[in-house]
Amino acid sequence: MQEAFLRLKGIMDELREKCPWDKKQTIQTLRAQTIEELYELTDSITASDWKGIKEELGDLMLHILFYSRIASEQKQFNIEDVM
Questions:
Q1: In the chain, is it the N or the C terminus that has fewer CB atoms within a 10 Å radius of its CB?
Q2: CATH code for position 49
């Protein structure tokens, strides 16, 4: 599990450094997308759609990494602080 998490964190770090879209995101620009992911999760929960729940939790985990990366860049906190 630790290996998979570190791989996901590495992907986020690489996207933040190399992808123009990811580089320009802020906590404000991600906010609406995070809310949408939460709604998608609640829809999956309501439907007892375990596959959907798994996918949406993965999306939210990526958002948590994204916010933590932005916070780290601004010297606020990092993913270890969140965990």
A1: N
A2: 1.10.287.1080
